[in-house]
Structures are given as structure tokens and as C-alpha cells.
Specification:
Length: 540
């Protein structure tokens, strides 16, 4: 009996040691990988101010799945005196901000001679888009315009496309020409006050795949042509004429080509929206965010839109005009937490490779998917990723191919601050560290390739250290709203100032180590390739 008991004790002791060793082995998994970068020529070129964010009109009564997450984030009541909010915009110098959203097509603009009261949006399920018509007071437009001027923001404004239209008996189709009179009044007032607008956008998700009425491609093109003529006339004595943007909708392979072919002479920017992760009530959001095959699905839409633009012969370029990942206002502790950075940063990297010029995040503040906290405006984790991208990733996009673990995503650009390169590396694996070596092609691949093996290279030019920015979640909690940069918390100070984002400096001969569930930006000034030479940047 005693011997049997001893045997059982010994058995469980050995089993415990075995399980412990297995667990440690799983925690300590390290894989090697090689990142191949084509440095001979760039594959795309983004705008200098690629990072963009949105501000919306939703009032506090906007609720989804029983949660009301907008607070006082509407453009009609947003606290413009908040120092954190001001600094969060100002630090980008500039940040492009898109003003718009669903309710822009229920918004009228006060005029100087209005006798009717200018009332806010009110919830009413019997009304179109479930809200009454709202109104933008001229005094509020003055406040917003002065605020954007002080912060240095570049603003696009979404106009009400449904003005003058009637909804057909099917309850879906919007018929008739756009009535531009109210918009013309706002645009003229804006010019008279010398407020700078980067672009005027017509409509929000009215191309058939949105949540509200639908306008045919032919009619939409006609309305955009009317907007173009109106803006050209009002700005005829100005040196700079704002861009015309449209349609601000989910990409449709039939509707978009028809629209672009008809409106190509009046349109400078084709805007489309992306909500690729799922709805705010989806129980599988985190799994989708961390699954590369799911994230890859959006690439076909980005690629198809570029094909449409090329085939049309238009000079118009593509913007992602709105993308929040999780539709219907996002989800608390998912789309406003660290885990959100995996889809967000991956999607901006992917969008850039398809020649997208700007990428607008829904939202800057508001809902559960803001770059900033809706209550106190403190940055959520995605904000810091966006700011690092803005500072490090230059205009020229380089082709990359990673040989190694499937859950490692990689993007390379010419550096924004040197003639070197900048990388964004995303490790979506929960337990594997990846050590990356670089192999950079310097010559046309049609000729004999010249490869620069970066790691363990004895070239004396590599004495200059590279800069790394490692982003991780506080306490390893993917739902944390606090981000660590190189192991240190990033928080605003008591003056409301955005914290400094300092890199660690690493010997360039060391591999780049990407911890599990982390995101790393890398600036390598010593890797200078033909695609990133000053002459190439200038003429691309």
C-alpha cells in the first residue's frame, strides 16, 4: 500500500514537472524569419499626411445594442476648450480631419437670414435614419473653424446629399437632383470668413450598400458635377480650390465604376468606407482581429478599386474616407483597447500598398472606436500607433515578403526623417517571439540581384544604431486601454500634453526581435536604397 502511494506521488510529481517544462517551452518559443525588401523602386506613394481621423454628428442619444457610447462627442457639442483634445490634434501638424457621417445627410446649415430656430438632432424612429433633421448654427461653425485653424488641422466637410431629394415608395431609393442652395450658402459663408477647407465631400454611404437611402450612380455623378461647378464658381478668385470628394460609401464592383466613369472630370478623390472586422455585438471580434486570413479579405476591395481607377483613366485618387473596424459604434474594451491596434495598423499598412493616399479612422473621438477616449480625450492605444506611423513612415511604399511565421505582418516605407527606411512589424501570435533578419534588394530584379544582408554585416556604416519603438499592452491584457512603449506607460501629463515617444537604440547587426502580441516600428537610417533617394522621392 505504501509503495503504491509513493508511486502515485512520484508519478504526479514527474507529471507536474513535465507540464511546467512544456508551459515554459511554450512561453519561450522563438522563431527566426527573413524579411525581404525590394529597395529598387516603390510600389505606391501615399500623401505626406496619410493619417486622417473623423469627427461625427451623432448626439448622445445614439445607441447600439443597448449601449450609448457617444456622449458629448458630436460636432455640435464637442468641448473645444479641452487641452488634451487640442494637443492631440496639434501634435500631428497636420492631422487631416473628415467632418461627416450618417447624419450629415440630415443636416442643414443656418444662414444669416434664417428666421427658423436652429435645432439639434433628436431621436425619432419614425424619421429617416431614425433622427429628426439637425441644424449647424453659424456660431458653432465659427467656433469649429477657429479651432481647426489653431490646431493646424486640414478639414474636409461632408455635405447633405439628400437635400431636395424624395424617397421612393420602396422606402429605399432617393430620387431627384441635389438641391445645392443650402450648401452654397455655407460654402460662401466659409469663403467670406477665410476659413480653409481642404475638400468638400458629397454624401455618406448612399451608394446602395449603406444603412440608409440609395442614389443611382448616374444621379450621384450628376450631383457631384453640380458640386464641382458650384465650388469652382465660389472659389474663382481664390488661389487654392478645395478638392471634391465622393461618394463616401462601401465599395461596390458595379456601382463604383459607373459613378467614376460619369464623374471623373469633376472628382479629385474617390472615398470609400471599410468595416471589415464585424458588428459591435459580434462575440468573435478578437479572434477576427488576430487572424491574418480574415484581415486579408479587405485587400481584394482595395485592389479592385485601384483597378477601377486605372481603367477609367481618371486622375482621381483613392482615400479610405472612414474605417472603424467594428461597425455600429465599435465595442467597448475591444475597438478602443490595445487589441484594436492589430487590425488598425495592419489595415493602414495594407491600404498604403494599394496606393491609397489617405486613411481616415472612425473616429478621432466618439463611440467606442475613437483614437481618443470619449469622456476625457486621453489617447487610446491606437492613437500612439497612428502618431508613430505619421512620424516615421514616409511617402514611398516598398514591397516586402516575409519568410517565416504566418502571423507576422510586415510593411516597409522610405523613412520620413532620413534617406533610410522605416518598418512596421506586427506579431499576432500569442506565444512566439520572432527574430527578423533583413535582406534588401538594391537592383532591378530583372538583372543580377544585389542583396544587402543586414544582420551580422561588418560594414562600418552600420555603426549608426537603429531606432525601435515596441508597443505592448499593459500587464499583457489585450483589452487594456493603456499602451506601453518600450516597456513604459504612455500617458498625458497634468498640462494635457501628449507624451514623448522615444525609441530604444539597437546595434544594427542584431536581429529585430518582435515579442508575442506586439507591434514594432523600426527606423533604419543606414539602409539607403534607390527607391528612397532624394531624386526618386521628388519625381515619384
Amino acid at each position: 500500500m505504501a509503495s503504491s502511494l509513493c508511486f502515485l506521488v512520484l508519478y504526479f510529481l514527474l507529471l507536474s514537472l513535465y507540464v511546467t517544462q512544456i508551459s515554459r517551452a511554450e512561453e519561450d518559443i522563438v522563431e527566426e524569419g527573413i524579411l525581404y525588401i525590394d529597395g529598387f523602386s516603390s510600389i505606391a506613394k501615399i500623401d505626406e499626411d496619410f493619417i486622417c481621423a473623423t469627427l461625427d454628428w451623432w448626439p448622445p442619444s445614439k445607441c447600439d445594442y443597448g449601449t450609448c457610447s457617444w456622449g458629448n462627442a458630436s460636432l455640435l457639442n464637442l468641448d473645444l476648450s479641452n487641452k488634451v483634445f487640442f494637443n492631440a490634434i496639434r501634435v500631428f501638424s497636420p492631422l487631416t480631419i473628415r467632418l461627416g457621417g450618417t447624419l450629415q445627410d440630415r443636416l442643414i446649415y443656418q444662414t444669416k437670414h434664417d428666421k427658423q430656430p436652429c435645432t439639434p438632432f433628436l431621436r425619432d424612429d419614425t424619421e429617416l435614419l431614425k433622427f429628426t433633421q439637425g441644424c449647424l448654427p453659424l456660431s458653432r461653425w465659427d467656433e469649429l473653424s477657429e479651432f481647426f485653424k489653431k490646431t493646424g488641422a486640414k478639414v474636409t466637410f461632408g455635405l447633405n446629399t439628400l437635400n431636395g431629394k424624395k424617397i421612393a415608395s420602396d422606402g429605399r431609393t432617393a430620387l431627384g437632383d441635389w438641391d445645392s442652395s443650402n450648401a452654397a450658402s455655407l460654402i460662401r459663408y466659409t469663403v467670406s470668413r477665410n476659413y480653409t477647407i481642404h475638400g468638400w465631400e458629397l454624401g455618406n454611404e448612399l451608394n446602395g450598400n449603406g444603412i440608409g437611402p440609395a442614389i443611382s450612380a448616374d444621379q450621384y455623378a450628376y450631383d457631384v458635377t453640380a458640386l464641382h461647378k458650384l465650388v469652382q464658381d465660389i472659389y474663382k478668385e481664390k488661389d487654392v480650390v478645395p478638392l471634391i470628394l465622393a461618394p463616401g460609401g462601401i465599395f461596390d464592383a458595379i456601382w463604383f465604376p459607373k459613378f467614376i466613369n460619369k464623374a471623373s472630370n469633376s472628382l479629385q478623390v474617390v472615398t470609400h468606407h471599410i468595416y471589415s472586422v464585424g458588428g459591435g455585438n459580434d462575440p468573435n471580434l478578437v479572434q477576427k482581429i488576430l487572424e491574418p486570413s480574415h484581415l486579408d479579405e479587405e485587400s481584394k476591395y482595395l485592389q479592385n478599386l485601384q483597378g477601377v481607377l486605372r481603367n477609367s483613366g481618371t486622375s482621381a485618387v483613392a482615400w479610405v474616407g472612414e474605417s472603424g473596424g467594428v461597425y455600429n459604434s465599435g465595442r467597448n474594451l475591444v475597438s478602443n483597447s490595445f487589441v484594436s491596434s492589430f487590425w488598425y495598423l495592419d489595415q493602414i499598412g495594407m491600404s498604403a500598398t494599394f496606393d491609397t493616399k489617405k486613411y481616415c479612422r472612425q473616429t478621432l473621438v466618439g463611440g467606442n472606436y475613437g483614437l481618443l477616449n470619449t469622456t476625457n480625450f486621453h489617447p487610446n492605444p491606437d492613437y500612439y500607433g497612428a502618431l508613430l506611423w505619421h512620424r516615421l513612415m514616409g511617402r514611398n511604399v516598398l514591397s516586402t515578403q516575409f519568410q517565416g511565421m504566418k502571423k507576422l505582418r510586415s510593411y516597409a516605407h522610405c523613412s520620413k526623417s532620413s534617406e533610410g527606411i522605416a518598418l512596421m512589424l506586427i506579431n499576432m501570435h500569442g506565444s512566439t517571439t520572432v527574430n527578423i533578419s533583413l535582406s534588401v534588394t538594391l537592383a532591378n530584379t530583372n538583372e543580377s540581384p544585389m542583396l544587402l544582408q543586414v544582420t551580422n554585416d561588418q560594414n562600418p556604416r552600420h555603426g549608426i544604431e537603429r531606432e525601435e519603438y515596441h508597443l505592448t499592452a499593459k500587464d499583457g491584457d489585450l483589452h487594456s486601454q493603456t499602451v506601453l512603449l518600450n516597456g513604459k506607460e504612455r500617458n498625458v501629463d497634468h498640462f494635457g500634453r501628449i507624451p514623448l515617444l522615444k525609441p530604444i537604440r539597437v546595434n544594427p547587426s542584431d536581429p529585430i526581435s518582435i515579442a508575442p502580441l506586439s507591434i514594432v516600428f523600426v527606423h533604419i537610417p543606414t539602409i539607403q536604397v534607390p527607391a528612397c533617394s532624394m531624386s526618386t522621392r521628388e519625381y515619384m
